[in-house]
Description:
The protein is α/β, with parallel strands linked by helices and 238 residues long. It is 15% helix and 34% strand. The strands form two sheets. The protein has a seven-stranded mixed sheet with strand order 4-3-5-8-9-2-10, covered by helices on one side.
Amino acid sequence: xxxxxxxxxxxxxxxxxxxxxxxxxxxxxxxxxxxxxxxxxxxxxxxxxxxxxxxxxxxxxxxxxxxxxxxxxxxxxxxxxxxxxxxxxxxxxxxxxxxxxxxxxxxxxxxxxxxxxxxxxxxxxxxxxxxxxxxxxxxxxxxxxxxxxxxxxxxxxxxxxxxxxxxxxxxxxxxxxxxxxxxxxxxxxxxxxxxxxxxxxxxxxxxxxxxxxxxxxxxxxxxxxxxxxxxxxxxxxx
Length: 238
């Protein structure tokens, strides 16, 4: 028995099936395509149509991982007084996106009790923030919406054909991107770190539910959750 396999579309599969000589396909005139009058009985012919399942969602998508750490000697310096927010070197987002994250952090600092309107150039604290973006999973390649195969064979009873068609109408997934917001609070006079934290989220590029504003707001809220923690205490949330 010999077999020929190939991938094609439904039209091509139908054309090949129609090209088989009628004398080589027993069962014609018996009320079906098989020798016993039933479609696909006895492996004499038939077709199978399946819908390809779309890629499983990544479990990291939409979840936030955050952690904080307070310096042992921070005392009661956190959560009050003037503070100035600056963008640290090493940020990988576009300059147009940075003000969105800066505003989200300022909002959280105000809620914590800081004065962000009148920073003290000679005292108070500095909040350095950094935004880092990395591709976790690249964009999927474009898939063929219809694919399949045809098997043609021969036996003592004649020839047979078999068709299998897969239909995948799902769109390729966009890249899964990690956005990480890092921040640290420094004493302006001494440069001593008082507190630091980071929050990270994985989202799909182009997802309407995760605009730049939505990501910045979610990360800043997670970053300053339960701020300030006790001296030397590490707080993690997800």
